[in-house]
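Incident log, structure service

09:12 report received: a user says their structure output differs between two submissions of the same chain.
09:20 pulled the input from the user's history:
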Amino acid sequence: DSIIKLRRQIAAFFSHSCPELLWAAPWVSKFPMTGRHPRIRVGVAVSRCSALHISEMQRLFMANLDRNRFEVIFFHLHDEPENEYRTRAEAAADKVVLFPWGDLDRFRRIVAREELDVLLHENTISPSLIFAGFARLAPVQCVFFDGVQSNAAPNDDYNFIFGADCCSNETRSQFAEKLVTLSGHPYAPIFPELKHQEISRRDLGVPD
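09:34 re-ran on a clean worker, output below:
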């Protein structure tokens, strides 16, 4: 496919021009290490968790992982405003770790310190997340919530689409990574709580 070929060429250009992008966490080469952690450590890295539709997908994914098997570490930008969406998303994780905007090296080392088994990251406007897939920060890496996009990053193993209904057979060929989908639709909106209020015709400007 010409699109995938172009994206792979672009990724190869970045890798050749800046080999530092291919940095690997030192401990990853030793994986697996028996008994390293009692549960599988899953990291979820996002730029913003205040956008309603994104935060709910993140929250539901993290909240529904079996805690007998998985430990969830949630990474997001340190300057994320305090609001209900951030609070809900953070509450769905076992641990919350903040990272700065635009400091790729610091972001990679922050993630590497957690010794994740699996890293899921957005491919969004944050430079740290766009280039996360060039580095090897966990034995298994997956870009998610990526629509029909794929930056063909050399160390992203999978592309995780929250809803199979969002990805047609035609667009499946647009991914350089191995595609993983969940059944159904990914969006789960929060419906507002509305207080009952009697409204008269006059309130609406309609003659009695």
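09:41 both user submissions now match this output. Likely a transient worker issue. Closing.
09:42 reviewer note: The CA atoms of residues 108 and 133 lie 10 Å apart. The longest strand covers residues 70-77.
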